[in-house]
Amino acid sequence: MSRPFRALLHFRLIKELFRYDAIEAMLGFQGVRRGLPPQATGQQSNSLELEDAVCEALLRVAPFYWKRVLCLQRSVVTARVLRAYGSQADVVIGYRLAPFLAHAWVEVGGRIVNDSPTFQRRLQVLERF
C-alpha cells in the first residue's frame, strides 16, 4: 500500500470513529447498526493486504482518539471501512455466561481480521450484522 493511501486511510478511520460516536449518541446501538453500509454484491475483494492495512491503521489511530476505543466501536469502524473497499465484512458480537464476557470482532469469510481467533471458538454468537 502506498504512503498516500495509508495517510488517507488514517484520516478516514478518524472520521469514522467520530461518526460512530455521533450516531451512537443520537440514535443508540440501533442507529449504529442501521448505519452500516450494505454488503457489497457481486465480486468480493479478498485482499489480505487491505484487511491488514485497515486493522493496523486503526491500531495506530486509536491511541490518539479523544476517548478509549472499545471493541464494538473498533469493529463497526473496521467493518464500515472494509465494506467501503468492497470486502464482505461482518460485525460479530459474542458472549459467554460464566464468567460473563462479551466481545465484538470483524469476520471476513468466516475469518477474524481484527482480533484473536480464540474469541470465535470460546464465545457464543449473539448477533452478526
Word description of this protein:
By secondary structure, the protein is of the alpha+beta class. It has one domain. It contains four helices and four strands. Strands 3-2-1-4 form a four-stranded antiparallel beta sheet. Helix 1 crosses helix 3 and helix 2 packs across helix 3. The longest helix has 33 residues. The chain is globular and about 45 Å long.
In short:
The chain is α+β, with helices and mostly antiparallel strands and 129 residues long.
Total beta-strand segments: 4
Bin the strand percentage. Answer: 15-25%
Distance between the termini: 28 Å
**Helical amount:** 40-55%
What's the total helix number? 4
Q: Main beta sheet: strand number and arrangement?
A: 4 strands, antiparallel
Order of helices and strands: HHHEEEHE
Low-confidence parts, pLDDT < 50 over ≥5 residues? none
CA radius of gyration: 14 Å
Shape: globular
The residue-averaged pLDDT reads 93
Structural classification: alpha+beta
Assembly level: single chain
Question: Could you say how many structural domains there are in total?
Answer: 1
Write the layout of secondary structure elements.
Elements: H1 3-35, H2 48-61, H3 71-84, E1 89-96, E2 101-108, E3 111-112, H4 118-122, E4 124-128
Antiparallel strand pairs: 1-2, 1-4, 2-3
Keywords:
4 helices; 51% helix
